[in-house]
Amino acid sequence: MAIFLTKESRVLVQGMTGGEGMKHTRRMLAAGTNVVGGVNPRKAGQTVDFDDRVVPVFGSVADGMRATGADVTVVFVPPAFAKAAVVEAADAGIGLAVVITEGIPVHDSVAFTSYAKKKGTRIVGPNCPGLITPGQSNAGIIPADITRSGRVGLVSKSGTLTYQLMYELRDIGFSTCVGIGGDPVVGTTHIDCLAAFQDDPDTELIVLIGEIGGDAEERAAAYIREHVTKPVVGYIAGFTAPEGRTMGHAGAIVSGSAGTAQAKKAALEAVGVKVGNTPTETARLVLTQLDTVREAPQA
After folding, report:
1. Is the peptide bond before 105 cis (omega within 30 degrees of 0)?
2. 244-252: long-range pairs with CB below 8 Å, 24+
């Protein structure tokens, strides 16, 4: 099994006919994703030839859903048009919208994440790499050839660290990897993914990657204490961040001790999460924890 995305998912791409949309649609198709259409009001009725797959272009998300039964959309539109694109998808009743676009104004993200929630549409992102269920489907820009299917679930703020942990644990493999994005406002949180992985019978262990700034990881720790029985291994990006320095990621705002990597590590370790000091150490902790789980006597 998996969370949020499976081989049954039928995927639209908003902005498919643009440069980034074309490039990544080709990569998603190569990974086995069932891309059933693109969306561009100015090119409705056209088709795009992706080597051995011809993909139709629809004038709206609603038209694409009616014609194909799509239940996922991946958004590659420019920042100025992202809010309208997500609202359109939510109005059409799509189940999942993966917003890859970076540089979206925060007030737009606040508006469309709130609107989508009311409409019952899950947002992953914005400013995220998307999500992948290896061997089944890939919605976004995550490289599909660096890992394989397995029993580890991964949720991460950082796209780069998503890829690194996927590669370091490639011999173990993943159920689903979700890059939630590092902006101050995101549609799907660590807690949402923790809950879904906890309920997924084929996820044996959860990896949580956070970063300095905000309190998302502290809130995730509180949720783990009350609701998660599966082992969790964590990593916090920013252990070496210089004190008092403004960092590049939009969500990396640190005030005093609040939001520091050390404070987040302490919060997670207090609820039993093993936290690595480097990505490589984190991968080793995953292997150790999996060995412990698999050697434990079954009730």
Report:
1. no
2. 247/212, 247/213, 249/182, 249/211, 249/213, 250/106, 250/127, 250/182, 250/183, 250/184, 251/157, 251/182, 251/183, 251/184, 251/211, 251/213, 251/214, 252/182, 252/211, 252/212, 252/213
Is residue 101 a known part of a binding site? yes
pTM as predicted:
0.93
The answer to the question of whether 204 is labelled as a binding residue is: no
Largest CA distance in the chain: 61
Concerning whether 227 is annotated as a catalytic residue, the answer is no
DSSP-assigned beta bridge partners for residue 39: 14, 58
| Torsional sign, CA 290, 292, 293, 298 | positive
Task: Express each pLDDT in 246-286 by its tens digit.
Answer: 555 544 555 444 578 899 999 999 999 999 999 999 999 99
Query: Where does residue 130 fall: left (phi above 0), alpha (psi -120 to 50 degrees), or beta otherwise?
Result: left
100 is in an annotated binding site: yes
Helix boundaries (H) for 96-215: 106-119, 159-168, 190-199
Separation of alpha carbons 244 and 47, rounded Å:
52
Of 24, 107, 190, 249, which is the active-site residue? 249
